[in-house]
Every structure is written in C-alpha cells, then in structure tokens.
C-alpha cells in the first residue's frame, strides 16, 4: 500500500540566505527534534564556483513506537539517508530523504524545498511531500501506516519552530542579514553583523505601490493573517495591478475581503473583483456618496440609520424592518431607487469602517446590522417586495463581500421563519453563520442578551435601553406620495399595473363573484396572496373542501359550492372570515394548507355597489419541502393577522 502525505506551503518572512544560515544550525542535532539522535556527513561537494553544494548525511533516528512493537521488530533506532542540493544562485534548497533501515520491506521517501518567494524576494517558501510504501512488515502494515502519518505530522509542525528558533539565535549574535551569493565572491555566504532586527522593519510604511506588507500595517489595518494568506494577498495585488492598467487598484482591505470571499483562491477572487470593478464603473458607484440625493419619502418613512458602534468597534446600522412599508416604498420610489439607497448605505459603511479603524486603533473591516422585526407580518412577504429584497441581497453579496460582521435579529415574530427561509438561500453561507436571533419581546434580560454585543449605554430605547436614536420609526406611506405611473393613477387598467407580469385583472359586476380553485396535494404547503382593489368594494374569503371542484371562468353570480349543492359547515369550511376591501387598498395574506384538498379563494362585488368593481390579484404556493420546520407556528400566527388592509 502506498500513502502520500503533503503539507501546505509554509512562508518564512525572512530572506532565503538568512533561512539557510538558520537551517545549517539544526545539524547534527537540535533540542526541538529529540527524535534525531545524530547526523553524520558522508559526502560534501561544491561546484559552480561555490554557488552549488551537494551534501549527503546519514541520520540516526529514534523509533517512536510502543515498546512491545520495537521488541517484535528488533530495533530501537532507524537510519535515513538525506541528500541536500543547495543552489545559492537560484536561491533553492532541495532535500531528499529515504530510509536505509528495512528498505526491503518499507520505502519512505521525503522531498522538501526551500525557495525564494516568487513575488516577494525577501520571503522564503517551504513545501514538503512524502510517500510511504509498505510492502511487507511482519503483519503490522496498518500500524506502520498510522505511525508514519503521526511522525510526518509531528515533524511538519516542528519544522517552522526550529527555523524560527535558530533565526532568533542568529539575531542574538548580531546576525540578522546574510548577503546574497555573488559570482566574484567565495562559495561560503558571508555572515555579517547589523543592527537590523527584521527584514520588514527596513521597509518604509506601506504605500499603495508597495508590494511588501509591513507587519505594523497588517496589525493595524488587516488583522491576523497566516503567512500563506499574506503571500496570497501580495500575489493578488500584483495580479490586479497587471490586469487593471486603467483602473485604480483597490486598497488592501478591499482585496482581502474579496480573497476571503473566495477562500483565498487568487483566480476566483480576481474574477469576482474584476466583475465588481466593472459594475462600479458602469453604475458610477465611486460617486454615490457625493452625488446621491435621498428621496423625501425615504427621509420621512425609511426606518433605518447608523447608530454608534457595537462592542467590537464595528459601525452599527439599525433597520426597523417590522415598521417598514415595503409596498409603499416600492410604489413611491421604485425598486431601482431602493437598490441605490442600499448601495449608498454600503458605501457609508465602508467609509465608517475606515474611520473606526483609526478611532479604535485596530482593524475594523466589517459592520454590524441590527434588524428589529417587531410588527413583521405577511404584508412584508408581498412578492414584488421579496423580489426586490432578493435583488438587493444578490447585488450586495457580489460587490460588498465580507462586510457583514454580525447580524442581530431582534423581536422575531412567528412569521419570520417564512421570510428567513425565502431569503436565506440567497445569502452566502459564511454570512448566514453570523446571524444571531432573539425571538422574544425582551432581548436584554436574557442569557447572552444584546448587552453582550452592543454597549449598554448605546442600546436603543425602543429595545429597552436608554439611548435615544435619530432613526425614523417608519409607518405607512400616504398614497398621494406614490409615483404617478402607479396602478391607482391609471384608472386601474390591467396593462398599467407595475407588476402586470405577475398579476391578473378581474372585473366584477354588483353581485358577481370570482373564485380561484386550488387543488392541493402537498400537505403543509403555504398559500399566499396579494390583492390590489382598484375600483369599488370587494369581499374576500378563503374556503376548503375535500370535494374535487373544477375551475370555471363563466360570469357567475353564484358560488361553485352552490352549484354543487354543497352546504357550508358540512361539505366545505370557511378558513378566513369575509373581509371587505376598499378601493385603493392592498391586501396580503397567507394560509398553511395543513392537509390535501381543494382550496377556494373567493372575491365578490357586493350587490349594494353602485357600479362594477375591479381588482388585481396574485397568488403563489410555497412548497412544504422548502419550508420544513417553519410551518408549525404559522396557523395561529397567521389566522388572526394574515389579512392586512391599508
């Protein structure tokens, strides 16, 4: 059986020559690797005027195995042959090691490389790969495989510690720099003393044109990064510079956010960033902070705004979604304007994050969102509103990745699981993991309450805190503020409805009714509806029966139940009480279809009306498969408030 082990690339933030000086000090033994008992040089030769050196060693290793196992195989030590190929001109060291002990039964081959970083000449890379081929080992093949894996993992982890240890030892001796090999110098690199403590400290502070990241800059503006992540960031910057000759290259914080969004895949992050830069250019996003004019409706009725910082220093944005008139906003400013408002908020967030970084003296590269859902109902699930929300989420996810540090959902009502199920599928998995939910009315006096995330003195008064906010409470938007091209301003003509592709128009004479028959075969699915009454009053009700009914589009002044000779309470049941809807009112609702059967949506123009009525309607069935686990609270939650008139 052949097993292959491979370690990730390791980065040393020191030049190759200094790393080599540290590497030589680990022979013949070093305290960090007690398993190595001795290393004897059996051959050592230089070529190419000292630029190349080949060294062969016979290394004696203690067998790290249980006592009984060592007794059975009859050895306490094992020997390996290690060959080093050093090229100071090319700045590479290739190492090959193969076992001498039990070579007829086991073949262990290890290959390591030290080499100058391809993008940063003052850094050194290291990678390692090994194969274990167990041919026959006294019936202990599986045990040997496990021990081999364990030994490989231990030596890999120790390797970096050893190099760092000996570099520090060199510094203590006053050696922090080793000259690069030159053609006219001797083969031995000259070790010199210098007052320089580290390579990075010789560099000037980071500027936009620098390709090397200063350690202080990283600590102040980027936060903790692994050496590999730092290297990826440097490479990513250079790739963007090479492919964006006419565009301004984003700062390192932005580059890092896109890298994180694509798991530090440079190619994937580059594609995502290039598309975003193109989008910003086409939509003039760089000018939005200076050019955007907030619509009057938004100033008066949009319940959102910035509010100090959370406990980690992130800028805090509060959105009182439960008080938002989604339908009114869409009809008064339109979907594009709502998207532009969101983008303006995101750009403000980027600016506030930079200010917070300076204010708190630590990296702040995302912000916190608090969403108050008190008042959320089915009217917020109006399909065009949800469609606009999903468009906004998609745009933000593509162009502002990794800007959301935490999302606090407070006072979430029973209706919330439906909205969450709809939108969560469009939110990045990493972003979803940052959501925290507070379901009850009190989000303070509970374990792990809001004060764990927001300074106590900054908790808004509407959540039980003492801080007064300047955020508007929202509320219903008056109809006279709707756009002139909205449906109400065109005498209700079906073709003029702003969402005519989704909605259907119905005209009813006094006493006439229209019934929509829905045959449900999916228990626990959810029936949702949205109605716009354009002219005269309309009576609306919902029924259910076990009988199989057929849809009829004839002008009818009697119900399908009457035509079939059915009696209410015996053959069919009324699920929603009749509601009288006035002209220019919108009605949204939902009902969990707990069982299979025939459901009937019924609209009727009262006989007492002085003229015909007109309405626009839309309905949708939400599959139970998509809402599993969310439906248990809907029946009681919706039956009392599923119809919201405005």
Automatic annotation (TrEMBL):
Low complexity composition-biased segments: 188-201
Record domain CRAL-TRIO: where: 294-471
Residue ranges occupied by any PRELI/MSF1 domain in the UniProt entry: 2-175
Annotated spans, Disordered: 181-203
Pfam families tied to this protein: CRAL_TRIO (PF00650), CRAL_TRIO_N (PF03765), PRELI (PF04707)
Source organism, top-level taxon: Eukaryota
Matching Gene3D superfamilies: CRAL-TRIO lipid binding domain, GOLD domain
Protein name as annotated: Protein real-time
Phylogenetic placement of the source organism: Eukaryota, Metazoa, Ecdysozoa, Arthropoda, Hexapoda
